[in-house]
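User: Fold this; tokens only.

Assistant: Input:
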Amino acid sequence: MMILGITFVACLVLGLSFLVRDGLADIERKNATARDAIKAMAHYRTAQAETKATAKKVAIPDEAVVLETYLKDIAQGFEIEIPGYARQPERKHGAFRELAVKIEIEGVNLSQLGAFLEAIETRNPVVVVTELSIDHNFRDDELLDADIVVATYEKAGKRDKKKHSDDDDEDDQ
């Protein structure tokens, strides 16, 4: 009977040690992912600081980048699905107009999200992320959901002149 009790206790201790070991392995994987994301962000910040130090002024184009197409192309490269695009109200900044869209992405890991955001801001200097909100995915705690507002800029004068000429055409009728 005593041998049975000792065997039971030994099995229980062995089982618990395997559970603890598996839990620690999971935590280590999460930490490794977080470390990779932090390294990517540090690299991005360093690159941004170097770019600002040697940066040329960005030439704002006459016509803005079509954000929906731009974001869709980038998202496909990271296997991210963007279910919809919500146009934000246009804002005028002096001689320039800001055009923005809000996207919601769900179920991405930290590395995917970091790489996606970096690609948005580095592929075209006139496109920037202006707002970012990140939450845990309610289905899988290891994944993230993000609301992102992406903006681009164009010269205000060209479109205003075009609108006025369109308005004049309507007045002529």
